[in-house]
């Protein structure tokens, strides 16, 4: 142990190992620290450094601006310290606070949503109640596998948890889900985590932008917003490579028929055949569709490249940074380790 970290919202100090980041030490100690990407890209772990000094590993300007850094804010997932520090995570009215729980679940159903995305429905057998806000994710452990983050596609009110898991080339856990997971198998679910969730106090237009299995949290957000009586425009953009990657289209068409304020846009980035659909990248579609996004909120989920491409377009269209809520689906290998 090189240093002691006092966390304002936690009664006991925690120890920091050499090269360890504050967030990792806090989570290991069971502290319910807010976090998302764990790679300095989302800002979910933004904290006020009250005492002491930290060294910050690389992070994006989106997660922490120079101005915020100058005000003493840091990112817990990027902060290392050689001496004792005191820190507090930022508490906002927008921060969903739910008890973190570890659930014993059983696979109830498996659905082939596309050629490479499996819908996994889990029934909760023990460890609940599990409360979360639409858009959050959980750490899911399948039998014999390492834990991985997956976003809930189900609404918080639903009894079962539903995940959309894309088989990633060369991936281990997603290959297990695609090929070996069976109904009846036990699964551990720990969470909820993440701050890219539905902000119910906001009443302006919503842009819900999903790439691939990023449709999971976006589905939960859109359905929850509509179920709670949201009347303003809800633009759902679903970006897929090809026709075979489009899923739940009928589901959203039916939802749009019930809620005329839901406008669904499907955009194909690499159609293998002629198509009557809109083509191109999601960020290009958003760029073309809106003169201004001032007052709107965006929820973005999917591959990091898609999230990185769409974010500057939203700010270019005058959306405020605090109105952009993004979960980039970084893999474990892509999450930079401390000191990199
Ligand atoms: C907040 C969050 C939410 C997410 N939600 C979802 C979701 O709802 N649905 C979904 O499908 N995914 C989601 N993900 C992604 C998910 O957590 C996994 O990363 C994904 O399923 C791949 O896991 P895997 O074990 O199959 O792949 P891994 O075994 O982790 O491999 C991933 C990729 O990295 C490569 N790789 C492996 N090891 C190395 C190495 N040492 N060096 C370089 N490359 C390496 C592999 O070849 C592969 O291409 C989410 C991620 C985050 C952070
Ligand atoms: S920036 Fe720290 S968790 Fe995303």
If you had to describe this structure to a student in words, what would you say it looks like?
With 340 residues, the chain is an alpha/beta fold. It has 3 domains: 3-89, Ubiquitin-like (UB roll) (Roll), CATH 3.10.20; 101-193, Translation factors (Elongation Factor Tu (Ef-tu), domain 3), CATH 2.40.30; 206-328, Nucleotide-binding domain of ferredoxin-NADP reductase (FNR) module (Rossmann fold), CATH 3.40.50.80. The protein has 7 helices and 19 strands. The chain has a 6-stranded antiparallel beta sheet. A 6-stranded parallel beta sheet has the order 17-16-15-14-18-19, with helices on both faces. A 5-stranded mixed beta sheet has the order 2-1-7-3-5. Strand 15 (234-240), helix 5 and strand 16 form a beta-alpha-beta unit. 44% of the residues are buried. It binds flavin-adenine dinucleotide and FE2/S2 (inorganic) cluster (FES). FE2/S2 (inorganic) cluster binds next to loops.
The coarse overall form would be: globular
Q: What is the domain tally? A: 3
Order of strands, widest sheet: 11-10-13-8-9-12
* Associated small molecules: flavin-adenine dinucleotide, FE2/S2 (inorganic) cluster
Along the chain, the helix and strand elements come as EEHEEHEEEEEEEEHEEHEHEEHEHE
* CATH classification class of the largest domain: Alpha Beta
**CA-CA gap between termini:** 20 Å
| CATH fold node name of the largest domain | Rossmann fold
The share of residues in extended strands comes to 25-35%
Features:
binds FE2/S2 (inorganic) cluster, 19 strands, six-stranded parallel β-sheet, alpha/beta, Rossmann fold, binds flavin-adenine dinucleotide, Elongation Factor Tu (Ef-tu), domain 3, Ubiquitin-like (UB roll), globular, six-stranded antiparallel β-sheet, single chain, 340 residues
């Amino acid at each position: 142990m090189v240093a002691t970290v006092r966390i304002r919202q936690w009664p006991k100090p925690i120890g920091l190992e050499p090269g360890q980041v504050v967030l990792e030490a806090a989570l290991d100690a069971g502290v319910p620290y807010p976090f998302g990407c764990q790679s300095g890209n989302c800002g979910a772990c933004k904290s006020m450094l009250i005492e002491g000094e930290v060294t910050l590993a690389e992070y994006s300007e989106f997660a922490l601006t120079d101005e915020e850094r100058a005000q003493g804010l840091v990112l817990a997932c990027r902060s290392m310290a050689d001496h004792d520090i005191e820190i507090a995570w930022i508490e906002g009215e927008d921060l969903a606070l739910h008890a973190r729980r570890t659930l014993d679940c059983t696979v109830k159903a498996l659905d082939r949503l596309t050629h490479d995305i499996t819908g996994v429905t889990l029934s909760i057998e023990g460890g609940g109640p599990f409360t979360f806000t639409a858009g959050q994710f959980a750490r899911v452990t399948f039998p014999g596998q390492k834990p991985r983050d997956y976003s809930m596609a189900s609404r918080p009110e639903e009894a079962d948890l539903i995940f959309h898991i894309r088989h990633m080339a060369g991936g281990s856990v997603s290959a297990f889900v695609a090929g070996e997971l069976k109904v009846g198998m036990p699964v551990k679910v720990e969470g909820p985590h993440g701050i890219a969730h539905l902000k119910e106090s906001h009443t302006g237009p919503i842009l819900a932008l999903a790439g691939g299995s990023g449709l999971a949290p976006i589905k939960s957000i859109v359905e929850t917003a509509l179920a709670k009586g949201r009347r303003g425009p809800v633009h759902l953009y679903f970006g897929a490579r090809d026709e075979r990657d489009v899923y739940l289209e009928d589901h959203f068409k039916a939802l749009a028929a019930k809620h005329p304020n839901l406008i669904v846009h499907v955009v194909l980035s690499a159609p293998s055949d002629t198509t009557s659909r809109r083509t191109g990248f999601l960020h290009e579609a958003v760029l073309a569709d809106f003169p201004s996004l001032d007052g709107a909120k965006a929820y973005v989920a999917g591959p990091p490249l898609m999230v990185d491409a769409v974010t500057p377009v939203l700010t270019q269209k005058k959306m405020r940074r605090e109105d952009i809520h993004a979960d980039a689906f970084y893999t474990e290998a892509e999450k930079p380790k401390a000191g990199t």
